[in-house]
């Protein structure tokens, strides 16, 4: 039997403490004054793309996909090799406020995740704001999931994964599958997911956590480029409305020091309220937003082990007999 890591007793590493100490007086202070303009978004995209190239992202094996299906255009890439129909796979949606980043910027992380879990991963290149408005990205992930089914991958063989906005996108896909009467994927793995698109929950959490990386007003300015046309009551905007007993078993990994911790707890409470299936929320002490991506931080490598453990439990059918929302939801909620 695989056992989850004792996150509550974890002491933040020197590397993670140093990283947070660097972010607070630098990038975080910039987010207080940056306007999140269209020009700024283009600049951030260019810097992140070139940074990924310099870090060797283009040397990592990947197979680009660009095609049109009955459900819509599918854009992205397989990391490593392209799987054969019937293989167990992962559909990954990157984060960054629905406005920046790409499969290239996340290629190293998704490759490591693929190798650790033994699943070929399709990294979705969904449409971003401000060029594209809500619900363009939602339509893209729906098209990608239906394409995987058409390729011969069964829902029980598909894991959905994503970070930040990509986590939000993964949850909105599950709600869409329910509305269409389609089978859910086998499981969800979410890193610091956005749940409330208005950032109200994140702003409330910020007053407790003091997030070392960013202020909520900046994140709201960025994401509004995409959500400008969204209605507050739309479950594709506030995905806590998508909670239900049919949601797949879920692992959520978040940092205790980040404002998005509030969204992780929101999803856990929403699932518990509907007597939803197993939802494991790990709140890692002293960690910033989507810390799992930063491979130099020891905690990032530990979370890879946790994801592999969770997926192994899925494959072994362990969750068939465990339907509680989360055995640890009361202690986690008390920490807030």
Q: In words, what does this structure look like?
A:
There is one protein chain. The chain is of the alpha/beta class and 336 residues long. Helices cover 40% and strands 15% of the residues. The protein contains eleven helices and eight strands. It has helices at 14-23, 27-31, 38-54, 107-117, 136-151, 165-180, 200-209, 216-227, 261-273, 298-315, 329-335; strands spanning 62-69, 72-79, 89-93, 120-124, 158-163, 187-191, 250-255, 279-284. The protein has an eight-stranded mixed beta sheet, with helices on both faces. Helix 5 packs across helix 6. The longest helix is centred in the last third of the chain and has 18 residues, at 298-315. The two termini are 31 Å apart. Residues 327-336 have low confidence and may be disordered.
Task: For this entry, give a set of tags.
336 residues, globular, 15% strand, alpha/beta, eight-stranded mixed β-sheet
């Amino acid at each position: 039997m695989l056992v989850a890591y004792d996150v509550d007793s974890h002491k933040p590493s020197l590397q993670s403490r140093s990283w947070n100490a660097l972010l607070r007086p630098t990038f975080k202070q910039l987010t207080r004054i940056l306007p999140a303009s269209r020009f700024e978004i283009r600049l951030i995209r260019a810097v992140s793309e070139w940074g990924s190239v310099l870090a060797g992202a283009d040397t990592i094996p990947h197979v680009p996909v660009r095609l049109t299906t009955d459900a819509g255009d599918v854009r992205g890439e397989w990391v490593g090799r392209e799987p054969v129909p019937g293989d167990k796979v992962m559909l990954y949606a990157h984060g960054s406020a629905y406005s920046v980043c790409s499969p290239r910027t996340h290629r190293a992380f998704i490759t490591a995740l693929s190798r650790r879990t033994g699943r070929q991963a399709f990294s979705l290149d969904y449409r971003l704001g401000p060029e594209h408005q809500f619900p363009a990205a939602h339509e893209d992930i729906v098209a990608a999931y239906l394409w995987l089914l058409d390729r011969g991958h069964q829902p029980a063989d598909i894991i959905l994964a994503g970070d930040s906005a990509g986590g939000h996108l993964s949850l909105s896909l599950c709600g869409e599958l329910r509305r269409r009467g389609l089978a859910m994927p086998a499981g969800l793995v979410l890193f610091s997911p956005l749940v409330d698109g208005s950032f109200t929950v994140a702003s409330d959490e910020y007053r407790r956590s003091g997030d070392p990386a960013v202020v909520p007003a900046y994140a709201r300015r960025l994401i509004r480029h995409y959500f400008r046309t969204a209605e507050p009551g739309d479950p594709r905007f506030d995905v806590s409305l998508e909670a239900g007993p049919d949601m797949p078993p879920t692992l959520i990994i978040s940092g205790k020091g980040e404002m998005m911790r509030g969204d992780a707890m929101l999803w856990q409470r929403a699932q518990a309220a509907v007597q939803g299936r197993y939802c494991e929320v790990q709140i890692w002490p002293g960690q910033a937003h989507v810390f799992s991506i930063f491979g130099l931080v020891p905690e990032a490598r530990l979370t890879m082990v946790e994801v592999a453990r969770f997926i192994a439990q899925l494959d072994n059918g362990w969750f068939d007999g465990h339907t509680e929302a989360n055995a640890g939801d009361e202690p986690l909620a008390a920490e807030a």
